[in-house]
Amino acid sequence: MTDMISLEEARALVLAQVAPLDSEVVPLLEVVGRVAAADLASDIDIAPFAHSAMDGFALRAAEIAGATEDAPTQLKVIAEIGAGDVFSGAIAPGECVRIMTGAPLPDDADSVVKYEIVAVVEGDGKPGSTVAFAAPTAEGSNVRPAGEEARAGEVVVERGEVIGAAGVGFLASCGVLEVPAYRRPRVAIIATGSELVPPDQVPGPGQIRNSNSYAMAACAQEAGAVPVVLPIVADTFEALRDAVDAASRAYDFVVTTGGAANGDFDFIKPVVDELGDLLMTSVNMRPGKAQTFGLVNGTPVFGLPGNPAAAYCGFELIIRAALRKMQGFAHVDRPTVRARLTAPVRKKDVRRLFSRSTLTRAADGAFEVTPAKNQSSGLFGPIQKSNCLASIPEGPQMLEPGDEVECILLDVSEEVPL
């Protein structure tokens, strides 16, 4: 395929070639943010017993049904139960038990009255004291019943569910310490360019530091994948062919930067074409028109442009969705909002423009978006200070302050509905 296609077509094409990876068993503390690959059930009732929701006095609600401020009901405190203790004795008429938060409710009690609204008539409120209740209470008040959150054998986390920090705690209480989760794709990052040197070297004449590998690896990591930065590849067909062939056999996804256009030293398209199936070569977007995608040895291979902003936009708008799908995420689209421009936008290019921009909230509560002053595709700096991509439609545009555009949020998870 050599024709330029829309961003929507490019995303659909790439997503059609990937699927959730196989699962692996992950220790509970390492599963946060990942997708469960199986239903997970509790081994016990949660909570395993009825317990007090606060410090107070456990009693039968019927004992104080007629209590008023003018005629309070007095009860004798016969015992005290702390968290971890169990009271197995009987509570006779006219008696109650002092109870702490989390302590099991005695068999003879059906409610708890919080300590702060109970008057101490005699003693210190502990066993042997007399306390007074100035109002009735409802049966079951301030009691968390057994099985309130889950019953033994009940599914508490479903397959496909993203496990958060609270979910880790919930699974721990259910006795689940190992979780089947979809595997995180290992992504090979290959920068091409004879002018590139590692970041720890001072560039010589005609050389630049390899920043793309680090940025794309960071993008992959933010998407939940496991990036591996491979050595820089020189601008020769043979060197890139050998690197892509080897990487496609060892990794789940291959991302290259540079060499995606049609120059004398741009080789990713012929390499993919020779080694496998070339499915895409250009996308109707700016920055990032030159984007190559295909399958080599059955592995997705994506060739991004060498310009930093173009590479970033291509990764963010297409590759990120594919990597999330491979991890079992149901939501692969970044949230979007409509926002008012704060500055004019003049565009002659027919391609859709993704302007690196900052989204803020105006005094009237509406969103406003300010494009970065420097939109050069060769810069990472403006992206670092941006939190969204303002999407300017295809074709020439003469947009004024106050005109609304769609903004793709870069700092909000795909799981957040907007």
Automatic annotation (TrEMBL):
It is an enzyme of class 2 (transferase). InterPro entries: MoaB/Mog-like_dom_sf, MoaB/Mog_dom, MoeA-like, MoeA_C_domain_IV, MoeA_C_domain_IV_sf, MoeA_linker/N, MoeA_linker/N_sf. Keywords: Magnesium, Metal-binding, Molybdenum, Molybdenum cofactor biosynthesis, Transferase. Its EC number is 2.10.1.1. This is Molybdopterin molybdenumtransferase. It catalyses: adenylyl-molybdopterin + molybdate = Mo-molybdopterin + AMP + H(+). Belongs to the MoeA family. It holds the Pfam family MoeA_N. Catalyzes the insertion of molybdate into adenylated molybdopterin with the concomitant release of AMP. Residues 188-325 form the MoaB/Mog domain. SMART domains: MoCF_biosynth. Pathway: Cofactor biosynthesis; molybdopterin biosynthesis. Its cofactor is Mg(2+). NCBIfam families: Glp_gephyrin, molyb_syn.
